Amino acid sequence: MYHPRELYPSLGTGYRLGAPQPGADSSFPPALAEGYRYPDLDTPKLDCFLSGIEAAPRTLAAPPPLPPLPPTLGTEAPPPAPESLHPLPGVSLSLDNRELWKEFNSVGTEMIITKAGRRMFPACRVSVTGLDPEARYLFLLDVVPVDGARYRWQGRRWEPSGKAEPRLPDRVYIHPDSPATGAHWMRQPVSFHRVKLTNSTLDPHGHVRPRLGPPDKGWGWDQGRGSLLFPPFQLILHSMHKYQPRIHLVRAAQLCSQHWGGVASFRFPETMFISVTAYQNPRITQLKIAANPFAKGFRENGRNCKRERDARVKRKLRGPEPVATATYGSDAPGGPCDSTLGGDARESDPEQAPAPGEAAPAPAPPCGGPSAEAYLLHPAAFHGAPGHLPTRNPSFPEAPDSGRPAPYSAAFLELQPGPPGSGYPAAAPPASFASHFLQGGPFPLPYPGPGAYLDVGSKPMY
DNA sequence: TCAACTCACACATTTGAAGTGC
DNA sequence: AGCACTTCAAATGTGTGAGTTG
């Protein structure tokens, strides 16, 4: 395997490998060991991103050991506790809609993935404390496989059913408010509800068109809001695989900052889920319908509930009849079904809009423009990958609309295993790292399974 | 044959644009 | 002219179930 010092020589001794955790599984199937290696970092390429250097790094405490993940969904899991690495001392994250997640997790959370991309429900929504109110931070989210197995619904429970598919390109969702001050992040919960899950590799950049607005608007800088027009992101997953969302908090003045002031990664065991193209567990379907406002029509009183749908089919067969039914009136807001709304059921996303009186994070203009924009143009540099590193796996076909403007096409970080002969070994070293930002994020080390941890610390990364 | 997947559908929600009044 | 508020329409988010694929 590759030691981090080998991968990032300029890190010096600012990091260390922790001892493997109890229960860590190092026997990942070879399919998951598809890995990545970066050649020597081409630091001169990063010179244009130097303007956001943070204050002196802090000394880090040893991160706590990460407990092993529960073996399977739907079984008795250990008391869920957020797991984190703490290169940002004092920073803590709590899952804001934890009760909802726990409810789903007790059944075995399933997330629909579609070609067009499906939102997560529940969404990851967290509250953060302990940030420096003045410093700027980035919030990132990614989703990593939990183990090396493919799963199958056996009528009552999920059971492993063979080897997992080869891992897909790592993608990292950047919260659209990033970068923002600690005060901003701590003011209200941070929601990642815009992230989408897909099983399609045809759009290698993870974008979907903007929901509203002129089609030619594209992505760019929103002068009115003073923030970046971020598209929703799509994370590529395999169906019937178990995944774990992770949230990363990076102290950096801007997206293209070369020196990060520290990194903290968090994962909440109760947010683990199995990706599916159609719900397998009827209890999950019931929970989703009960909790998701978009599925209101499928509730007992909804016009799209089974009773109503069956009635419509009968009416169709019998011929045209008056459409109105007594049920319609009972679907008024405030009915019994609305009582199930809570947490994610109100997805109006309060964190998207700055609080009254608060100016939106001022765009730091390095590199000749807003830093986030610079990131979109040079994601590889932001993530430390040399510019010549391939950003797209040749095995993934070109998107039909790949002629989109550069910011659009470059806005997603993808890190691929190197092609044969490229200098990047196709086969990765055996994994012994735990989930960490450097794995699923900028430097996707082989497999983010529950192993030892990599303590990156707050040293400058280059 | 069967499991997994895709797609069209109806309905609910969200959100920007347009309209209105002050 | 500018602002706040309301209304409207279109886009988007849902689960369902039939059809398709391998």
- Round the Cα radius of gyration to an integer and report it: 23 Å
How many strand elements? 19
Order of helices and strands: HEEEHEEEEEEEHEEEEEEEEHHHHHHHE
Proportion in β-strands? 15-25%
- The dominant shape is globular
Largest sheet, strands/sense/barrel: 9 strands, mixed
CATH names the topology of the domain at 92-209 and 229-280 as Immunoglobulin-like
Biased composition (Pro residues): 62-82
Region (Disordered): 60-84, 300-404
Organism: Delphinapterus leucas (Beluga whale)
Keywords: Developmental protein, DNA-binding, Nucleus, Transcription, Transcription regulation
What's the structural blueprint in terms of helices and strands?
Blueprint: H1 4-7, E1 16-17, E2 83-84, E3 92-95, H2 98-107, E4 110-112, E5 118-119, E6 125-129, E7 136-153, E8 158-163, E9 173-174, E10 180-181, H3 182-187, E11 190-191, E12 196-198, E13 221-222, E14 227-228, E15 234-236, E16 241-251, E17 262-267, E18 273-276, H4 282-291, H5 306-318, H6 326-329, H7 371-377, H8 379-382, H9 406-410, H10 437-440, E19 454-455
Parallel strand pairs: 4-18, 12-15
Antiparallel strand pairs: 1-19, 2-17, 3-6, 5-12, 6-11, 7-8, 7-9, 7-10, 7-16, 13-14, 16-17, 16-18
The structure holds a DNA duplex (22 and 22 nucleotides).
